[in-house]
Design brief:
Largest sheet: none
Shape: elongated
Strand content: under 5%
Number of strands: 0
Radius of gyration: 35 Å
Length: 190
Amino acid sequence: MPVRVAARTPAALAVAALAPLLAAGLAHAHDGESDESAVLVEQAIALIVNEAPKEHVTERIDDALEAPHKEGVDLNLVRRARDVVERPGPESASLPEARGLLLRSLGGKLPSAPKAGHLVTGTETGTSVVLDEFRPARGIADSGDAALFALSLLAIAVGLWLSVRLRPRYSIRELKRRTAAEEDGEGRKR
């Protein structure tokens, strides 16, 4: 059965042509960025913890300073943190200091911290702790690692020795051959 196509009007064609452009403009306008300074400061802290480049941290701090909703944030400390991040020198020295300033600007409590008596739902984590990245040492780092390595080698050696020492006298193949030969022998005697 043939499918009928609706009559095309100039208005429908114009709307159809502009729809992708309007959708792209709407998607770009919101961009998923918050308009609250406290949330943007928390995101800057997360960028510092995850070792993002200084430029990304500075951009997020600038966004926090320009955000329309500045409740719950000490902007003087945020400005000081931006100056610390932009200061020349190694990142390893300036970023932890900036993290401390940003956390103090929020009063020591992150906006994503769970409310008392509020159950965690959806994408909420239920915690306001931002931990540093965990990077365990590789290889033998101390005497405890060396002792564990030596014990594991000893366990392997003892296991190999026991497997040879406690090995059965005859293999399964040889036992099958003997039982088959015995059955043949008994069958011939009768």
